[in-house]
Amino acid sequence: MATSADPTRPSEDNMPTTEATPLLGAPESGPSAIIRSNGHASKPTFTGSSSPTITDPTTTNDTTEEEDEPEKPFPYTQIALLCYASLAEPVAYFAIFPFINEMVFRLGQHQSPPIPESSVGFWTGTIESLFSVVQMLLMIVYGRAADRWGRKPVLVFSLAGVSVATAVFGLSGSLGGMIVARCFAGLFAGSVVTVRTMISENCTKQSQARAFSWYMFMRNMGIFVGPLIGGPLACPADPARYPGAFCKTKLSTTFPYALATFTAGAVCFSGCVLCVFFLKETLDRTPTLDADGGPVTTPTKKIEMSTLEVLRSPGVPMVLYILGHSNLASLGYTAVSPVWLFTSVKLGGVSFDDRMIAAFLAVAGASQALWILLVFPPLQKRFATGNVLRGTTMMFPVLVASMPFFNELRRHGEDKVFWLAFLPSLAVCSSVAMSFACIQLAINDIAPSSHVLATVNALALAVNSGVRAFAPVVFTSLFAVGVKSQWADGHLVWVVLFVLAVGLHVACWFLPKQAEGRYEQQGAKRKAV
After folding, report:
1. Compositional bias of type Low complexity: which residue ranges (predicted)?
2. Full-model pTM
């Protein structure tokens, strides 16, 4: 039975507020924003009272509001534009992966002393990490800018900047130049904050799972598109790589990786252009109106949970821990894979060239994207978020353990067995990508109140960026240590990752009940009442 409203208590339906809402979960910012369930804002509200209103967001009944919230048509065009814009960051991040090891090795030969092959992993990990370090430091700045000046201008600025930064990376003539260019790219990598905000603002509680499924799919497509650009287009003037040398310009000869990075930059810039002309602003600055039709100017007060209170809320620490643990293990694997593929068989790798590395990363990205798009929605609907999360994380230890096994196959001349097992196992084990979508849904469900959904998401993004800042350099350095020492034939890093993968699966059994994602069961209970 629905609970009747108490006219003596302030409610969200007659409550103006003058405080700007946080970025991620709230569709409105500014003096007029009235927060609804799951961060959705109401239309302008008329009020006959000018007295200050005090409300505690932790006491609102979000469940009732979600039931009363009318379903609106799914905004296909806007979600499609935002999903395409979300390609920019993974394309910019992963486009250099197929050739960065070779680029570091080539430019490192001009160092004094030259960089040996065994130290390439340290340099590549450092360069890859700088992107996330700078991104983490500026994430809050991008969020506040989007709250003040609007989502669209900040998104367009970020996309334009990362397009240029990605392009100029290929013009680096030294290791120092590579470091500066990578920091420059991280400086403009704020699109992820704005895109996630605008997707949330375009959707209702019922439709956001589908929208974020498409978002995760496109992010994984970026993992596919980035290497597909970076691998085949690297060194186009090299006759040893391409017998016809299809691009013999002076630029391609002087800067062999420029064509790859300029193409990746063009993909990012195309998203910028589409957003300029077709994307709609979601930050609503419509003022709250009083009974006479004029704007409310009387200051109001709003009691909010502090960041520390949100962090201590039931279930939040555990979900954030699972997120951080998942990112640590997955980013460690992602960072080590290219250098492992590049490393010779005798040192613990599989001796792939740039094109084969690009093919590996492309297959992995495409497989993950297909798992998320085609398999995850029906699987989550039937088995709920928690069960899918636990099931998919079981595949992570299998994926990690297969890597030293493949090296041993090549080390002992079993190439036929290697190729028969390598790609199929990669495609199957890529199902672990569904765990990332599960964790995103768990983050949305664990928020103690719709008013602090933005804070929970901001904490999650901070954890993500923080892990991305150090995980690549730690694990690639660990790989380099294992290669140099030849402990267990150079498989030290895979032993560490295996332990992390097993620990992740164990942690998922402690997922809070409110994050299990049993939406249909919860809905049935509400209807029964």
Report:
1. 47-62
2. 0.65
Q: How many Cβ atoms are within 10 Å of 141's Cβ, its own excluded?
A: 12
Q: How far apart are the first and last CA of the chain?
A: 5
* Joined tokens for residue 465: 């960026």
CA distance 356 to 362: 10
Each residue of 83-131: pLDDT tens digit? Answer: 999 988 889 888 998 889 889 988 888 777 888 877 787 888 788 778 8
Q: Are 237 and 247 in contact (CB under 8 A)?
A: yes
Look-up of token digits 């208590």: 9
Neighbours of 164 (CB within 10 A): 14
Whole-angstrom distance, CA of residue 72 vs CA of residue 369:
27
User: Are 163 and 268 contacting, i.e. CB atoms less than 8 angstroms apart?
Assistant: yes
Compute the CA torsion angle 334, 339, 342, 347 (nearest 10 deg): -120
Which residue reads 């209702």 in tokens?
204
Kindly state which CATH superfamily the domain 76-285+298-528 is placed in: MFS general substrate transporter like domains (1.20.1250.20)
Is residue 486 a contact partner of residue 342, using CB atoms and an 8 Å limit? no
What is the Cα 488 distance to its own chain's centre? Answer: 34
CA 503 from centre of chain: 22
DSSP state of 46: E
The one-character DSSP state at 38 is G
pLDDT computed for residue 308 by the predictor: 77
Q: Where are the domains of the chain?
A: 76-285+298-528
Could you tell me which residues are beta bridge partners of residue 35?
A: 41
Q: What are phi and psi of 47, to 5 degrees?
A: -140, 140
Phi, psi of 336 (to 5 degrees): -80, -35
Query: How far is it, in rounded angstroms, from Cα 185 to Cα 95?
Result: 12
Peptide bond into 113 cis (omega under 30): yes
For residue 7, how many other CB atoms are within 10 A of its CB? Answer: 8
Count CB atoms within 10 A of the CB of residue 118: 15
